[in-house]
Amino acid sequence: MGSLKNEEEIELMGEEWTKEAILYVNGVRKVLPDGLAHLTLIEYLRDIGLTGTKLGCGEGGCGACTVMVSHYDKKSKKCVHYAVNACLAPLYSVEGMHVITVEGVGNRKHGLHPIQESFARAHGSQCGFCTPGFIMSMYALLRSSQTAPTEEQIEECLAGNLCRCTGYRPIVDAFRVFSKTNDAVYTNMSSLSLKEGEFVCPSTGKPCSCRPEIGSNVHPCKEGVACGRSYEPVSYSEIDGSTYTKKELIFPPDLLLRKLNPLKLSGFGGLKWYRPLELQHLLELKLKYPDAKLLVGNTEVGIEMRLKRMQYQVLISVTHVPELNVLSVKDDGLEIGAAVRLTELLKTFRKLVNERPADETSSCKTFIEQLKWFAGTQIKNVASVGGNICTASPISDLNPLWMASRAKFQIIDSKGNIRMALAEDFFLGYRKVNMASDEILLSIFLPWTRRFEFVKEFKQAHRREDDIAIVNAGMRVYLEEKGSRIDCFGCVNRLWWGCSSIYLCIEDKRIYHRQELDAGAVAKCFENLTSRYCDQRRCSWWDGGVSEIFNS
Ligand SMILES: NC(=O)c1ccc[n+]([C@@H]2O[C@H](COP(=O)([O-])OP(=O)(O)OC[C@H]3O[C@@H](n4cnc5c(N)ncnc54)[C@H](O)[C@@H]3O)[C@@H](O)[C@H]2O)c1
Ligand SMILES: O=c1[nH]c(=O)c2nc[nH]c2[nH]1
User: Fold this and answer.
1) Is the CB of 370 under 6 A from ligand 2?
2) Reported confidence tier of residue 517, pLDDT bands at 50, 70, 90
3) I want to staple 210 with a disulfide (CB 3.0 to 4.6 A). Which of 226, 374, 458, 463 is the partner?
4) Residue 504 CB partners (closer than 8 Å, separation 6+)
């Protein structure tokens, strides 16, 4: 009976699945035993005594659990560093990577890291619960930047960190020390338009009217009076890193040389965890386990499992499958692998907007704008394009944009057959998509916009950043000689998806004659649409009917 293979052997065919998992934490090599697939990274870190990383909301919204993850990217041949929420990252998702926690950055015994020192001096910490998360977000930004970041980049990197006592001003002030400075303030006084009686205050570095008394070398600002300050301003120049005696942790050379292996691990309650490295093996697994849950960032599944108590028996992490990670610029558009992370997508869009003719990138611009409000940096660093599409959540910020942009989805079944679906035909209802259980989303094709075609986003939420939309929309205007066309897709809570039609399509509605067209006119048109949309929402949620708004 030697030729008969048991289930386990069949599963192992073709690929050398292994249970050998390792991880570096703050420069120390850790072997991860089998049986921990149910654990998140934060649970593991705190279990091994690294309690600096805090568990706040547990759903990627507050940033108290932020750590930095580094891995070697074979494509770019570089180490990449990024902030992640340890509360959502499954432990095995960081296999073969280096995790740096706040303990690995600096401490009072070995010296505070300049980021920590500046934070303390600027009074950025009160209860201290959120502090490690802020430090790690800033640390990840600095480690991943080739040049000093701009103030805008610093604020962007902190969008996923919440503080409930200090307020953000001292925190931003503390981190501004590390940003690009306007040298003119210090070197070229004449470039400052100083009013009479004003000069550059040595304490604040800004124009002010305070001056030391003649014969006194105590500057009034130092005493906290002249600039209306009630505390001694931070003397940034004192933060020169000289008290930091610890060596900055490098990327472990061991990981540079290490060959990645496909993983087959397990967890509590019989949970199976796979990390295939090839598409073929992913498809085989999907054939064997049609109900298996695919994972990329785990920012949705993690919440389902922990907060909604949903149980999955088989999890397949698809982060390392090359076909799902393509980002390929074609003549007619951009091909985006389903596992491409949103930060990566954002970078690509920014590059394309600079390089390609403006006519072609209206969709790219609108995605850039919407991604600003999508989530904090930690989430965008791990959340995938495909994960957002396949969740098919009615509040998705991006799905209305895929529809408005005429995107097409490439779907592959477990036998390798590929089909295309238009984004607008893919979403069937509340968290329902046009995909069979043996199918997965392979990639997304985003066509370039045509001349006289404009795509625009809309999102209304309780707060601007990092919040779920109450109303969202993706709109497209295409201006033609014979008559212009507006298509609008979106949702209003669940109601939108509960409607028989999930989109509004107003054909042949003339908005402007072509000869009247200019960018301002189109912008005005969008502005009208969105402001009327908001007004309607304020008067009555839905009763008026969105179609009425557009038909009026
Ligand atoms: N937690 C937050 O703060 C936050 C904020 C914004 C967005 N999000 C989430 O980001 C998610 C996207 O990122 P993610 O990568 O973390 O999702 P994920 O790993 O949690 O997967 C989400 C869903 O998509 C499915 N999926 C993923 N890739 C697939 C593929 N190629 N084919 C078929 N199904 C696939 C998964 O099985 C799962 O059902 C969105 O769903 C959204 O809800 C979370
Ligand atoms: O598209 C999305 N946008 C969001 O802000 C969000 N939050 C959770 N899940 C989300 N999905």
Assistant:
1) no
2) very low
3) 226
4) 487, 488, 489, 546, 547, 550
Q: How far is the CA of 386 from the centre of ligand 1 (A)?
A: 7
Sign of the dihedral through C-alpha 75, 79, 84, 88: positive
Rounded mean pLDDT, 222-247: 53
Indicate if ligand 1 lies below 6 Å from the C-beta of 104: no
pLDDT of 390-407, one tens digit each?
A: 998 877 899 989 999 999
> Do 526 and 365 form a contact (C-beta atoms < 8 A)?
no
Could you tell me if the CB of 58 is within 6 A of ligand 1? no
Among all ligands shown, which has an atom nearest to the Cα of 397? 2
Nearest CA among 360, 542, 366 for reference residue 458: 366
Among protein residues, the one whose CA lies closest to atom 7 of ligand 2: 468
Q: Closest Cα to atom 1, ligand 2: which residue?
A: 396
CA-closest residue to ligand 1 atom 37 = 294
Closest Cα to atom 7, ligand 1: which residue?
375
Q: What pairs with residue 489 in β-bridges?
A: 474, 503
Alpha carbon distance 158, 139 (integer Å): 11
- Using most ligand atoms within 8 A of CB, pick from 57, 275, 341, 391 the residue to mutate for ligand 1: 391
88 in contact with ligand 2, CB cutoff 6 A:
no
Question: Is the beta carbon of 315 within 6 A of some atom in ligand 1?
Answer: no
What confidence score (pLDDT) does residue 504 get?
35
Please, which pLDDT band fits residue 434 given cuts at 50, 70 and 90? very high
Ligand 2 center to residue 357 CA distance, Å?
30
Instruction: For residue range 115-156, list pLDDT tens digits in order.
Output: 999 999 999 999 999 999 999 999 999 999 999 999 999 999
Tokens at residue 518, please?
């200019």
How far, in Å, CA of 383 to CA of 375, rounded? 10
Q: Is the ipTM of this complex over 0.95?
A: yes
DSSP H/E element including 84: strand 78-85
Residue 200 forms beta bridges with which residues? 207
Please check whether residue 416 is in contact with residue 264, taking contact to mean a CB–CB distance below 8 angstroms: no
Per the CB < 8 A criterion, the answer to whether 382 and 388 are in contact is no
Give strand pairing partners of 418.
412
- The gap from C-alpha 395 to its chain's centroid, in whole angstroms, comes to 16
Reported confidence tier of residue 503, pLDDT bands at 50, 70, 90: very low
- For ligand 1, whether the C-beta of 314 sits within 6 Å is no
245 burial via Cβ count (<10 Å: 0-12, 13-18, 19+): exposed
- DSSP secondary structure of 367-426: HHHHHHHH--HHHHTT-BHHHHHHHT-TT-SSHHHHHHTT-EEEEEETT--EEEEEHHHH
**The pLDDT of residue 431 is above 50:** yes
Strands 271-275 and 314-317: parallel
Question: Is residue 391 a contact partner of residue 430, using CB atoms and an 8 Å limit?
Answer: no
Res 509: pLDDT: 38
What sections of 65-150 are H helices per DSSP?
Answer: 114-121, 131-144
| Tokens, residue 363 | 């969709």
Taken in order 395, 401, 406, 412, is the CA torsion positive or negative? negative
pLDDT value, residue 239: 59
- Interval between CA 388 and ligand 2 midpoint (Å): 8
